[in-house]
Amino acid sequence: MVDLIPKITATIPFLLSFLTLLADVTNAYSLPMTMTMNAKHTLYDVPVSNNGARVRIILYKKGITSEEVDVVSPMEIGGLKSESFKKLNPQGKMPCLTINHDNGVSDSSSIPESDTICRYLLHTYAHEGPSFLPNSYQSNLIARIHDMYLTTIQGCLYKATPPFGIYRTRAKAIEEFERQLSIINDLVSNDGLYLVGDDVSLSDATIFPTLVFAKFMLPKFGRSGELPAKLEKWYNNVVAGDSDFEKVHQEVTSSLRKWELSGRWDQIWLAGLIDNDPETIFDKIVAGDIPASIVYSDDDVLAFKDINPAAPAHLLVIPKVRANLSGLSKASDDHIEILGKLLKVAGDLSKDASLGFSDGARVVINDGPDAGQEVAHLHIHVLGGRSMTWPPG
Ligand code: 5GP
C-alpha cells in the first residue's frame, strides 16, 4: 500500500492535464462561437427547413461562397435541443447565422430568425448579385403575410397532432392556409418571372420554399396541390426558368421524399382526414339522401331522432364528416374539437322540453361489438323523457 502512494502521486499531473484537455474540448464543443472558423458566417440549417431555404435562395442567387457563409447542420454542434445550439438561438430553431470576424474568432453575435438573417445578408452583400429589395410594397406585404399568417399554421402540413396555430383541426388549418394563399395570389403581378415583376424580391425567396412544401403535402390531405392561378404560373416559371430556385426545389423535395420512403408521414395522414371505412346510413342522412327527423344542424354536427326510440326522447348526435371516427376508440388528437362539440350539442338538446326531455337525460356512446354498436359512424345517444335504471342491460 505504501508502495502505491508515490505511483498515485506521480499520476496526478497527468490526470490533471487530461482533465484540462477534456474541459477545453468540452468548452470548444459547447461554445462554437469561440472556435476558429474559416468562413465569415456560419448558417445553421438543413435542406428541408422552409425558413432556411429562403436564406439559401439569397446565398445562391447572390453567388455568396462557403467562405463567406458556410452552411452547417445544427447536428454538428449537438442538434437544435443542445445547449450549444441554444446559446446561439434560445428558441432552438433553424436557421441561425453566426458572425465571425476577420481574425477568425467570432464575438457573441448570432442572428436567429430567417427574415432578419435575410435582411442582414442583403445589407452585408449589397454589392453582390440582385438586391432582392425592389421598391414594391407588394413584395413586403407578401413576405409579411407569409410570416404572420402562413408560417403560424403551416404545422398542419407536417405535425402529427393539433393545435395548428390557433386551429384545433387540420382541416380548418388547411382551409385557412389555402385562404391566405389566395390573398397572396391577389398581390402577385404576372408580368415578369417573379412575384412582383422582373426583379427577384424577398417575397419570392420567402414564399417559394413553403410552397414547395405545400405542393408536396396538400395532395396527401385530399387537396389538388394546385396553387391559385397566378401563384401556380409563377411557381412553374421559377422552377423551370431560375436555376437557383430549381436547386432549392430539389433540396426540399428530395428531403421530403426520403421521409416519405421511411414512413415518417404515415402517422400524419392517417391521423384524421383519410377514412377508408365504408360509408354508413348516417352519411346518407347527412347528404339528405334518406330522410331523418333533424333537430339540430351546424357546419360540423347533425342531430336527429332515432328511428327506433328507446325512450320518449331519443336523439342521435353525430359528426357530419366521420373522418375516421367510426367509433369512440378510434379517436385521435385530431378529433378533440369535434368530440367537445358533439357533447356540447348533446347537453344543449337534452334540456329541450319540446323534444320530450323533462328532468335529465342519459347520454350514451356504444363503442364496438360488446357495447352493441350497430352503425360504424360515431354517434351519441341522448335519451330522456322517462326515469331510467342502472346498470344498463
Ligand atoms: P348503435 O347501436 O350503433 O349505438 O345505434 C345505432 C342507432 O341508430 C340505433 O339506435 C338505430 O335505431 C339508429 N338508426 C339506425 N338506422 C337509422 C336510420 O336510418 N335513421 C335513424 N333516424 N336512426 C337510425
Task: Describe the fold and architecture.
- With 393 residues, this protein is α+β, with helices and mostly antiparallel strands.
- It is built from twelve helices and nine strands.
- It has helices spanning 4-30, 50-62, 83-88, 114-124, 137-150, 170-187, 202-217, 229-241, 243-261, 266-269, 281-287, 336-349, and strands at residues 41-44, 69-72, 96-100, 106-111, 294-297, 301-305, 313-319, 361-364, 380-384.
- Strands 5-6-7-9-8 form a five-stranded antiparallel sheet, with helices on one face. A four-stranded mixed sheet has the order 2-1-3-4.
- Residues 281, 292, 304-308, 316, 366, 372-375 line the site of guanosine-5'-monophosphate.
CATH topology heading of the largest domain:
Glutathione S-transferase Yfyf (Class Pi), Chain A, domain 2
Q: Structural class per helix/strand content?
A: alpha+beta
What is the strand content? Answer: 5-15%
Report the biggest beta sheet as strand number plus sense, adding barrel if it closes: 5 strands, antiparallel
Overall number of strands: 9
Radius of gyration from CA coordinates: 30 Å
The CATH class assignment of the largest domain is Mainly Alpha
List segments where confidence is low: pLDDT < 50 over at least 5 consecutive residues.
1-36
Summarize the helices and strands and which ones pair or pack.
Blueprint: H1 4-30, E1 41-44, H2 50-62, E2 69-72, H3 83-88, E3 96-100, E4 106-111, H4 114-124, H5 137-150, H6 170-187, H7 202-217, H8 229-241, H9 243-261, H10 266-269, H11 281-287, E5 294-297, E6 301-305, E7 313-319, H12 336-349, E8 361-364, E9 380-384
Parallel strand pairs: 1-2
Antiparallel strand pairs: 1-3, 3-4, 5-6, 6-7, 7-9, 8-9
The structure holds guanosine-5'-monophosphate.
